[in-house]
Write a structure and sequence with these properties.
Number of strands: 0
Organism: Thalassobaculum fulvum
Order of helices and strands: HHHHHHHHHH
Number of helices: 10
Main location: membrane
Radius of gyration: 19 Å
Helix content: 55-70%
Structural class: mainly alpha
GO molecular function: metal ion binding; metallopeptidase activity
Largest sheet: none
Cofactor: Zn(2+)
Subcellular location: Cell membrane
Shape: globular
Strand content: under 5%
């Protein structure tokens, strides 16, 4: 492996590790906190309402998958943590509260993106040798959190958007949608990555990720940057 490529890869890893862990940890802790506040203590009793990343890390989804996407220079970086256990029947109002618990994760990512945008204003106060590294971390924290927020709001279970959709659909449709949960993540990966790849083999450009993820991310980013003075 070329030494320059290796050095670049190591530096890329150092400015992605903290953003990935922060984004995924806060996302999962937010789900657990919301469930606890709304009547279900399952996640709290299992130690999942915590900012300790060890409690949330999934070896493949949190570490290996983002690393692979980084190496192959995928259109965007994402990952996942161990699902937070929620007993929906114990929520005060299961239908409504299912949606609120699901929404808490993406909302925490948007909040973290806002914090990252605000902290960028302090980069110039950091010693020169660390300012570029910090700026890259904050930039990655900003964009990664927006990608996670938008990606998780796609309306397919087990993504948060899918669970919100299940909570508002009539019972018959909700049941059919909920049955997609086991295969939902494979459907999303197929649509975002495999379908465009296969289309490219026959000369067709099918940029599904841009339409479903990047355009909403860029719109949300513009709004946050305007609000935070960029």
């Amino acid at each position: 492996m070329d030494s320059a490529y290796l050095a670049d890869l190591i530096r890329s890893a150092t400015v992605w590790i903290i953003p990935v862990i922060l984004a995924i940890t806060l996302h999962e802790a937010a789900h657990g906190w919301a469930a606890s506040r709304l009547g279900d203590p399952t996640a709290r009793l299992m130690g999942r309402v915590t900012l300790n990343p060890v409690a949330h890390i999934d070896p493949f989804g949190t570490l290996i998958l983002p690393a692979l996407l980084l190496v192959i220079k995928a259109p965007f970086l994402f990952g996942y943590a161990k699902p937070v256990p929620v007993n929906f029947s114990r929520l005060n109002n299961p239908r409504r509260d299912m949606a609120l618990v699901a929404l808490a994760g993406p909302a925490s990512n948007v909040l973290l993106a806002v914090v990252a945008a605000l902290l960028v204003h302090l980069v110039d106060a950091v010693p020169a040798f660390a300012s570029e590294w910090l700026a890259d971390n904050l930039s990655n924290l900003f964009w990664l959190n927006l990608v996670l927020a938008v990606f998780n709001m796609l309306p397919i279970p087990p993504l948060d958007g899918g669970r919100i959709l299940v909570s508002i659909l009539p019972d018959r449709l909700a049941w059919k949608m909920a049955r997609l949960e086991r295969a939902g993540l494979f459907i999303v990966i197929g649509v975002l990555f495999l379908l465009p790849f296969m289309a490219a083999q026959v000369g067709v450009r099918l940029d599904v990720a841009r339409v479903l993820v990047w355009i909403p991310v860029e719109t949300l980013a513009s709004a946050i940057m305007a609000v935070t003075g960029h």
